[in-house]
Amino acid sequence: MRMTTRRGMFAAASAVLVAALVTAVVPSASADEGFYSPPSPLPSGQDGDIIKSQPSKYNNATSTRIMYLTRDVKDERIAVTGSVIVPDKQWSGGGPRPIVAYAPFTAGMGDQCAPSKTLAGEGQQDMASGYQNSFVDTLLNKGFAVAQTDYQGLGTPGEHTYVMRAAEGHAVLDVLRAAQRLPDAGLDKDAPLGIAGYSQGGGASAAAAELAESYAPELDIKGAYAGAPVADLGMLAETLDGSMYAGFLGFALIGINEAYPEAKMLELANEKGAQAFMDLRTKCTLDAVFGYWYTDTSTLTKDGKPVAHYLDQSPFKEIVAENQRGSIKPEVPTLVEHAPVDDVLPYEQGKQMAKDWCGKGAAVQFKDLTVWGPYLSHVMGMNSAPSNAANWLNDRFTGKPATSNCGQF
């Protein structure tokens, strides 16, 4: 099929949704921006220690906005923000209330996009941020407490290190530690723990599952759900380029530039590319989609070559390898789900991650997500992912053994 025909089909299939999403954007509500400024120097303490907290808002729950200590890809101490949300609903499964680390999917790069703001009805809200609330609601409705991270640089100073494995995995694991240590939250330090995320969050959940044994061995993590995960940055550089979701590739390049300044990303960009780089760092999800869909990165580089061309060269090939999910065996049971017709994150890279884990002896369940068709299928996967994640984690928390289907997919 010719590219122009395929793009036309995508555009036609998404026209109604686009109109709905555009009109769904609401003006920013006020947030306490001073809260998002870390003290300098950072206080001494352990990873996961809370730097500061303040009451936040969430329907039918007690929500607390937090800033806590974690580590970036260079293992340097940083501060990130998030929320700890405890539902009014009681936990009926016996024992202490479980805590689930919610790893948000793509919210954007601008500080106004931080999920700890949008979940509270602040920041820039649109249909994409509404899906964050839907996932959190599903977890809360099971009686789980939710510990949500904003990741590095989303809300806090600096650029968001979008899809960088170590930074995201550390932030997810440390938000569980922070929830356990939050005064007056009423959460038990011996509570069973889980992790859940979709898309960017699926990749972050996968990263946390891989890093838990070495980074946070004391955490009693019963299972991790990784829906439509980011697993292979090299493959994404090819599939996102020129697609409806090319803006997400721009997000990843900004994330690489922040996490690995030695990559000197801007030295590859022409004037148009540099302008796109500076623009995308301020955007939330839908603004990036609509502003950059079907952009070819070959139009943004000085030599007219696409981003994927550089990935077999240093330092990019080392960066891609360092951020590959599937390279470390998770010691916690995992459920990986992916739609075979996913139009954003290729099914093959999520499935391969699960196979790689199986090959290392991990307890993995891999399932196909059912969606109605190939167009907007990644978005549609979010309709079933939250309940699938919540039900699977509930089984882990209530003592049902996790099963593996390694060798069957």
Describe the protein in words.
- This is Lipase family protein.
- This protein is of the alpha/beta class and about 400 residues long.
- It is globular.
- Helix 3 (about 125-140) runs parallel beside helix 13 (about 385-395) and helix 4 (about 165-180) crosses helix 5.
- The protein contains 13 helices and eleven strands.
- Residues about 1-25 have low confidence and may be disordered.
- Strand 3 and strand 4 (about 75-85) form a beta hairpin.
- The protein folds into two domains: about 40-230 and about 330-395, 3-Layer(aba) Sandwich (Rossmann fold); about 240-320, 434 Repressor (Amino-terminal Domain) (Orthogonal Bundle).
- Helices cover about 35% and strands about 15% of the residues.
- A nine-stranded mixed sheet has the order 2-3-4-7-5-8-9-10-11, with helices on both faces. It has a two-stranded antiparallel sheet with strand order 1-6.
Radius of gyration: 20 Å
Give the overall shape, derived from the CA principal axes.
globular
Largest sheet: spatial strand order: 2-3-4-7-5-8-9-10-11
Average pLDDT metric: 93
Order of helices and strands: HEEEEEHEHEHEHEHHHHHEHEHH
CATH topology of the largest domain: Rossmann fold
- Can you tell me the CATH class of the largest domain? Alpha Beta
Strand content: 15-25%
Q: What is the H level of CATH, i.e. the homologous superfamily of the largest domain?
A: Alpha/Beta hydrolase fold, catalytic domain
CATH architecture tag of the largest domain: 3-Layer(aba) Sandwich
Largest sheet: 9 strands, mixed
- Number of E strands: 11
